[in-house]
Specification:
With about 180 residues, the chain is of the alpha+beta class. It contains five helices and seven strands.
Length: about 180
């Protein structure tokens, strides 16, 4: 990626399988590895020649060079649909609860580290949605520097006994109560 702001449009999709850790705890690592291989094969069929990588125990990364927001969202929903089809194992139908977080370049960063971090934040946001696909939103990022600084300042104020509580009475203007 280019660090001078001239990065071409691109998207990074982080794909998570939310129920895979529970499946591994219940049915073992061998099955978990098999499900990841099958999920990888489903993803590769959608990705074509786009770079796809396993990013963790239950995550994949899909890099879409020259993709804009609409194209990334479209593919993310196709990914969700493909991975939302049950996996059959040991006479059981297993739902891995796929979710997709999207970070866009250069809007959300032109460096790989920033895009990876922002795609992961979007993935965590997607896990709580009915349609589990989310594009990174700086306003909703719990890890943004301003929020972390405010938390530090609040901790100092609490430790220094610098907070004061003021009560504001509520008044019903019609009745005067």
């Amino acid at each position: 990626l280019l660090g001078d702001g001239s990065a071409p449009p691109a998207a990074l999709l982080m794909i998570g399988l939310a129920r895979l850790p529970d499946i591994i705890k219940s049915m073992g690592h061998a099955l978990g590895d098999r499900l990841m291989r099958e999920a990888g094969a489903r993803l590769q069929a959608l990705a074509g020649d786009q770079p796809l990588a396993r990013a963790g125990d239950a995550q994949f990364l899909l890099w879409l060079p020259a993709a804009g927001r609409a194209e990334a969202i479209n593919l993310a929903f196709r990914v969700r649909d493909a991975l939302g089809q049950p996996f059959v194992a040991e006479d059981a139908s297993l739902d891995v609860a796929p979710a997709v977080g999207i970070a866009l370049s250069p809007q959300h960063g032109a460096q790989a580290g920033a895009l990876l971090q922002h795609a992961e934040v979007a993935l965590f946001a997607a896990l709580g949605l009915e349609d589990p696909v989310a594009v990174y939103s700086p306003e909703e990022d719990p890890n943004r520097p301003e929020r972390l600084a405010l938390m530090g300042e609040l901790r100092q104020a609490i430790d220094g006994n610098l907070l004061e509580v003021h009560y504001q009475p509520r008044l019903d203007l019609r009745s005067g109560r």
